[in-house]
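Worked example 2:
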Amino acid sequence: MKSVELGSKYTLVKFDDYWKGWQKNQIDRIEVEIIAEYATRILKFKKGEIDLTDDYLLADPKTRDELAAMKGVSVYEDVQLRLALLQMNNKKPPLDDVNVRKAISYAFDYNSIVKDVFKGACKRRGLCPF
């Protein structure tokens, strides 16, 4: 780590004595800018002011499709542990009734959410990890 500006940016540089060595044309410097505003990150990416972004920028399917359509942009999608969930207060009626919660679960159109909201992302199976 060459430099740090807390909450703003940091710079990483190649460590010449890296135990695995380096090959030609590998990246030798990375500048990471912390951009809190979602809209600012999108604008900077579109203007070519940043070269790489995290996947949170792609969370909105419309934005993901728009950026993926840009010349020279590659969008990589990998399986992740990220979950989307709805929280309910099951201490108050009507959600304090387990049968009401089951009815909501049965009535929820999971396939449409996966297809239309998450644009085909896979649906998790099994237990929630928390």
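The chain has two domains: 3-16+26-68, 80-124. The longest helix spans residues 98-107.
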